[in-house]
Structure formats: structure tokens, C-alpha cells
Amino acid sequence: MLSLNSLIHSYDEGTKIEYPDWEVGKGEHSVILGNSGSGKTTLLHIIGGLLKPHSGSVTIQETDISTMNQSSLDRFRGSHIGIVFQKPHLVGSLTVFENLALSQYLGKGTVERQEVLKTMERLGIEELRTRKTHQISQGQAQRVAIGRALLNRPTLLLADEPTASLDDENCEKVIRLLMAQAEAYDCTLIVATHDQRVKSELKNTLAL
Amino acid sequence: MNVFSLSVKNVVAKPLSSLLSVLLFGFGVSIIVIILLTSSFMKNEISKNAAGIDLVVGAKGSPLQIILASIFHIDFPTGNISLADANNLVRNRLVASAIPLSLGDSYRGYRIVGTTNEYMKLYKAELDEGEQFSEEMTAIVGANVAKALNLKLGDEIASDHGLAEGGGAHDELPFQVVGILKQTGSVIDNLIVTSVQSVWHVHGHDEEHEHEEGGDLHESILLEKLGLSVTNEQLSEEDITALFIKYRSPMAAVQLPRIVNGTSNLQAASPPYETARLFNIIGVGVEVVNILGIVIIILSAVSVFIALINSLKERKYELAIMRSMGAGRAKIFVMILIEGFILTIIGSLFGFVLAHGGFGILGSSIDQIQTSASFVVTEEYYVFGGSLIVGIFASLIPAILAYKADISETLARG
To answer: What pTM was computed for the model?
Structure first.
């Protein structure tokens, strides 16, 4: 469902980074493992269509996204890819419910209230509906961010360093949560991390 | 949920900074609008009061002063001209008609004008009650005068000598109020109007009685163009203050002022020319305040710009994430643009409400100014349009920055 072929990214200052070819099957939750500066966030952004590769191809479900133009890439990302970033970065002027609805509006163009409420329930954040984003805890905010990434039922769920600042117990909890939600929404999870603890949970590993 | 509601929520989420932008913008717009309203109101007033008067003739002196004193009744007259001189002038074939004015007295601060019935027609003033004044010590009063001094038909008023209060009263010869005028919105609302003869009578010459035997001196003759009926004695001895002249042909505009100014005691004053001159003098002040208003609008545009840039800095991750959720560049661009627009439109509307409200209060608190909050001039549409353009420019750069932002780079750092 995802395959990378002779992918090369070049940074502004000219240094190039070559990525090994990689295949991820459907439902095969995977991890991109590497130390800081190894280019794993960059790779995740390329897979998520946030960044264009210098050369090579990224194919998601038979679609080569490396040749798409900007606006069709935006649309593809909205409907096929959910991304959980290192920090939640919720929209401060909106409530928790509106933050989730925003993702539907931007990804699909419409808001289905029932769908939003169901997702909130599944993540255990239905109580927070009308709260502003500064009135909830870090952990709750991360759940909102995960819900936001899953709402549009993407085929690919990307997570960038979701466990970076967590202790062992919480690290396991978050990975379990991501995997469980990915199963529930029938999508494939790819985590980019330097955290060796994640490796034991996810079998398909790309080491950079 | 749509782009507009997102923009509204972003504006509301920062109440203080939004309020500052709106206030600044509002004050800038309101200053310009108030100036616009005041100056077009003044121009309106002037042209309304000077309508139908081609030329004003007074005693030698400043033409502007003649206009101010005899049309607008705000300055002092330059002096008197003899009735004989006036009569000689109006007999010229270039003069279609003339209205004589005898000024100089007042009653409790309101000026008394000695004139003919033509004066009422000039301002299209109609009687609310009572009748026209006659030659014999009767007067009619303007609507504002009647209201302010609570004058009724049959009341007697003793005029003061001079145009200010307490100038020494003519107590022994009071005027009787025989008519009250309807509100006209022109200068006549603030005047007491009587006949030229009555004004002469108040300043009565004792000699009149000494010449009683000279019969032909008391024979009444009609000065047709002036609409006055006088005795020979009056024609040779009495004075008036000014003449309103209506031209017979456009030719007169060229020749008549020259003839008037060639007569030793007379001075011609053209209302349009002198009011244009007056506006030139006031214009400098108007310009300064206008520039002040524009400076405030530009400052407020800068404040909108800074508010947007600052909120962009704070929200760059949010915006990048919105992009990652599938929002196109155009959507983000439009969202930021609308945010700037909301601030400037609300600010601009606030400015218009402030200006019109202020103007309405001015109109209702000062009797001499008859206006209302709904007084609108076309230039205001330009001000509104202009302020929106300023608003677009202030939000354009932030919107372009948001449009161009590299989301991958932003998110990699966050």
C-alpha cells in the first residue's frame, strides 16, 4: 500500500539524503527508526505529501504523490492521510469539538456531527467538547490530535515522535492507543521515532 | 463551519488586539467623515442663504465683511450708504431688482433687519401665523427667535442699538410682533424682520418736524426697483446698510461691479466669489485636520497589519496543521484576508456611526445648526471604499506570508 523507490531529498544548503527503498503492506503497522538529524521527520513529511522529494517516487495505494501538483496534493492529503505531530498544536480560537470538526471540514468539505462525537467517545474525550484548547491537559490534547488525524478515515496514519517526552508506562499506552485506533479505523500506522521502546511493539522497521 | 466563521472566531479569540485595531480605524474614519460632513454642511448653508443674490452692495470696506454681515448676519456692517446713491444705482438698466437692507439694531441678541417683503420671498419664508409687517413699527420674527424668546403675536419688543445685547435700548419706540415665520432652515429663522421705514423711525430724525411747511418734501414717491415708497425728504436724508441685487443679464456680472466700485461710497461684493475666498481661508485648517485623519487611518492600518502578523507568528503551527489536514493555500490566504477585512469593516462602520452620531448631537444641541445624524454626502462612499482598500492592503502581506509558508519546515521545527 506504500512503497518508496530510490527516494532522494536535497536540503536547501545542498546536502542530499538518500533513502532506502521500503514497502509497507496494508495494516502492517511500521516504524521509521533513527537518531535526531537522520532525516526521519523529513521522510515522514515526504510520505505525508508535505514535502516534495528531489527525485524518486512515493506511491500510496497505486497513486504516485511525488508528481502531483500542490492543490491536488492538498486534496489527497485531506482524504488519505492523517498526521499526528510531535506537539498537538490545536487551533487556539476553537473548542475541542470545533478542532475535530475543522479536520472534517478541511479534509472533506462538510462536518458530520455524529462522526465527530463517535470519535470523541472512542478516545474518551467526549467530556471536553466545549472546552477551549488551553483548558485541557497535554495528554488530552494529544488524544484530540489523534482523533483529528483519524476523523477522515485516512488510509495512512503518520505519527512523528509521539512518545518523545513520555515515561515507559505512558509510552506504551500511547503506542497501544495509536495501534488500537488505527485498527478501529482500518488504516495503516507509521511511526517516526528515535525511541527504541517503540521497536518492540511494531515489527516492520526502517532504520535510518 | 466555513472559512468566514473561522476568520470570525480568530478575530474574537483576540478581543483586546482586535478592539485596538477597530478603535484606531474607527477614529481615523470618523475624523475624516466629520470634516466632510461639516464642510459640505457649511457649503450647503452658504449656497442656500446666498441663493438668488447676484451682488451685494454695501459701504466701502471689505467685501467679505459685507457678505458676512448682510447675508449671514455674523459680522458687523462696513457702514451705511445713502438711499439716494442706492436709488441711483438700481435705476441702471443692468439691475433687474434689488432688496434694500437696513441693519444695526438687535433685540436680545437677535438681529433686526429692516427690508421689504421681497426679502421673505428670497428665502421662501412663509408665515406660520399672523400677517406681514407694514411700514408702521410692526415686525415678524423667525421661527428660532420666536421659540427662544417665547414671542407671541401682539408682543412688543424694544430694540437695542447695536448688534450685541445691552447696546442702549430704543424703549420709547417698540415694535409690535404681527407675524411668526415657519422654519426655513435658512438664516431668516434667526432674524427679526421689519420694514426699512420702521428702522428709520426708531432712529427718528427730529428735523422731520421742522420742515413741515415744505409740502413737496412729504409727497410720497415710489422707488420701483427697491420696492420702497418714500418721501423726497427721506430719499435725500436717509441711509440703508446694503443692497441685494439681481442682474438683468449675464452682462451685468462684468459691468455692474465696476460701476459700483467706481462710485465713491459703494463697495460691490459677489457672494460666490467671497464665499470661495472664505473657503480658501478655512480650507487650510480643514486640510490639516484631514491629514490628521488620514495619518490615523494609516496608523490603524499598520496596527491591523501588526496584529495580523503577530497572530500569524503565534498561529504558524496551527496554520501548517490546517494545511496538513487538507486546507489548500488559497483557503488559508482567504481566511487571513477576511480576518483583516472584518477588522477594517467593523472599524470603518464604527467610525461612520461615531461621526454621524456626533453630527446629530451637534445638530440637536445648537439651534443655529439644523442638521441630523442622517445627513449623508456622497464623498462618504469614497471614504468607505478607501478605508476598505487600506484594509485590504494591510491584510494582503500577512495573507501572502501565510500563503507562502513552508509547512514542512514549520512543522519539523515545532
So the answer is: 0.75
With left for phi above 0 and alpha for psi between -120 and 50, is residue A193 left, alpha or beta?
A: beta
Tell me the helix, strand and coil percentages in chain A, rounded to 5. Answer: 40, 25, 35
Q: Which DSSP letter does residue A200 get?
A: T
C-alpha cell recorded at residue B225: 426697483
Answer whether B314's CB lies under 8 Å from B410's CB: no
Return d(Cα B301, Cα B386) in angstroms, integer: 12
Amino acid found at A134: H
Distance from CA of B401 to the nearest CA of A (A): 17
Strands, E assignment, A61-182: 63-64, 81-84, 156-160
Locate the chain B residue with the closest alpha carbon to A37. Answer: B412
User: Do the Cβ atoms of A126 and A120 come closer than 8 Å?
Assistant: yes
Domains located in chain A, CATH noted: 2-207 (3.40.50.300)
> Which residues on neighbouring strands pair with residue A48, listed in sequence order?
none
Cell numbers linked to B17:
488586539
Dump pLDDT digits (tens) for B301-328: 888 888 888 888 888 888 988 988 888 8
Mind listing the pLDDT tens digit for each residue in A55-94?
A: 999 999 888 998 888 888 888 988 899 999 888 889 989 9
Nearest CA to CA, how far is A4 from chain B (Å)? 19
CB of B80 within 8 A of CB of B59? yes
Chain B: closest CA distance from residue A159 (Å): 12
User: Which of A70, A86, A106 has its CB closest to that of B325?
Assistant: A106
Q: Where are the domains of chain B?
A: 3-45+282-413, 51-277
Partner-chain residue, chosen from B2, B315, B326, that has the shortest CB–CB distance to A75: B326
Q: Could you give the ipTM of this predicted complex?
A: 0.88
**A74 interaction partners in chain B (CB closer than 8 Å):** 323, 326-329
- Cβ atoms A101, A116 nearer than 8 A: yes
Instruction: Determine the straight-line distance between the first and last CA of chain A, rounded to whole angstroms.
Output: 21
Angle between helices B329-365 and B15-50 (to 10 degrees): 50
